[in-house]
Amino acid sequence: MQGPRPQGPRPLGALVPGVTRATYRRHSPAVAQIMADWPIIVGPKVAAMTTPRRLDRGTLTIACAGAVAMDLHYVGVELMNRINTHLGGRPVHTLRFTQAGMPRPPPLTPRPPPEATAAAEAAVADLPAGELRTALASLGRVVLGRARTSTRRASKS
User: Fold this and answer.
1) According to DSSP H, which parts of the chain are helical?
2) pLDDT greater than 80 at residue 110
C-alpha cells in the first residue's frame, strides 16, 4: 500500500520521471530527441521525404522512398555528422534505410464558388474597411462556399 498522496501543488520536475519512464523503455532519449528535432537536424526538404524510425545499437533506421534512400546513401556521412553533432557524442554509427510510402499532404481546400464570394462581399459591404470586415468576408466565403457546394452534391444524387 502506498503512503498518503501529498496535498497542494507539486513541482513539475517530480512528475516528469513518471511520464517519461514508459517512453524511455521503448525508445532511448536520443531517439526521442532525433524524432522531435528531425526537421532541424536534416532540414525541411529532407524531413519532408524521410522519417526516423528506430535507433538500435548505433544504427539509425530511416524510412523513405526508394529514390530518396539512394540520394541519402551518398550523403550518409554528412547526415550522421549532423545527427551526432546535434545530440552530442556519437550515438549514430550507421544509417539504414527502409522503403516506406510517405504520408501525402492534406488535400487543398476547394475555392469557394464565385457566387459565394459575391454574396459574402455583399453581406459585409456596410461595414467600414479594416481587419474585421476582411475577416468576416473571408469567413462568409468559406461558410457560403461550403453551403453551396453541399447543396450541389445533394442535388446531384
Assistant:
1) 12-26, 29-42, 44-49, 66-74, 76-87, 114-123, 131-156
2) no
